[in-house]
Amino acid sequence: MEDLQKKYGFWTATAMVVGIVIGSGVFFKADDVLKASGGSLPTALFAWLIGGSIMVVTAYVFANIATRIKRVNGVVDYFEVAYGQRAGYLVAWFMTFIYYPTLVAVLTWVSAKYTAGLFGAGDAVWPIAGIYLAAFFFLNACSPVLAGKWQVSTTIIKMVPLALVAVVGSVCGLVNGQTVQSFTNAAQSVSEGGGLAVATLSTAFAYEGWIIATSINAELKDARKTLPKALIVGTFAVVIIYMLYYMGISGILSNDQVIAAGDDAPVKVLSLIFGNLGGTLLTLFVVISCLGTLNGLVMGSARGMYSIASRNLGPGCDFFCRVNAKTNSTVNSAILGFVMSAVWLVVWYGNFAGWWGGFMDISELPIAFLYVIYISLYVWVVRNFKDLGIMGRVVAPLLAAAGSLYIIWGAVQKDMFLNFVVITLIMVFAGFLLMNARMPDSPDLNASR
């Protein structure tokens, strides 16, 4: 296996955490959370707080794990050490063929949707999505260093519209009374929502992505110190930013207006605050924000099959474990990531074309499956991390597990949940059949320290 160079530091890792999480979900999930909350702003904010708390506690547990294990692909490494090579392989297969590409597909669509809206080209959403998909896989395959710099840059840029909406919206709302009205009057256009669990599941997409920062584990300088710091600092920052942003929206639009605006709510807010020209310029920042998240997801997806092949497992491992000598990138793995993302983009398109007879929400359902994996890791931490105090070893994992179960419960109530379960089981079983027998000795926790 060819080695990846240590080319990323604390700021790139933190930018991956913040930059992947803050991107599209905070913009296009605002109305979904409010609708699921029955139009009640306090309930919606509580859902955002629950989702954020789950993320922070989960990141804290993973930060403790990250100080002990440093290999090729974060969560896969952890599961492999905890439950063996075969279990780690199946998790890597799920991440490579389902988790990464589904989220990449949704993000290309979201980025394209806001881009098309910016230029008044509503009919060009899907072609733009295809262009974005190809462009960012090309960037990560040809210049991973440049991709890392893009991640840091977009993380800084995306703070502009969020900060302006949070500050200006909150001040205006308190002055004109809109904030109080939003808190006291639920939206009349919603008869009943899906409940707090479903609302929290919607926030899960907006909070998802921080775990992908662990995918550059092997490329981080002093990873055992850098990654835990990035996880904790990044997730705390995200929760604070989200809550302030949501308060800003509630100071400009009523709950009914947020629901009526749908995915265009942030664009409408920006236009009302700053006028059409200012709103247009800040909408450009929203597009860049989404593209920053897309880039971070592609960074993880481009390394998916490499993480499998580097373990001498799966089909074509000699091919997929190659690292390009000039760019130090996992080009072959990135090609597969691109293909799988394109396949899931077609599935996402099928939702809008009415192909499935229902809406298979691949923006949320794969996340719930990942939380099942998380729970298994929490059990392992409780059983094995005996050097940690009661908070790190017992309290935090149990709280994180409770949050994970709550997210999973919300997913069970989603439309076409069983259909997605069947698809996932079929794809994971296919991975099991393709797992070869050339397995190295099983690692242990002590060997990873």
Please tag this protein with its features:
Amino acid/polyamine transporter I, 449 residues, single chain, 19 helices, disordered C terminus, mainly alpha
What do you see in this structure?
By secondary structure, the chain is mainly alpha-helical. The chain has a single domain, classed as Amino acid/polyamine transporter I, CATH 1.20.1740.10. The protein is 73% helix and 0% strand. It has 19 helices and no strands. The protein has helices at 10-21, 25-28, 30-36, 41-66, 74-83, 85-119, 125-142, 144-176, 178-184, 196-207, 223-250, 255-261, 265-301, 304-309, 317-320, 331-353, 365-384, 390-412, 417-433. Helix 6 crosses helix 19 (417-433). The radius of gyration is 21 Å and the shape is globular. The relative contact order is 0.19. The model is unreliable at 437-449 (pLDDT under 50).
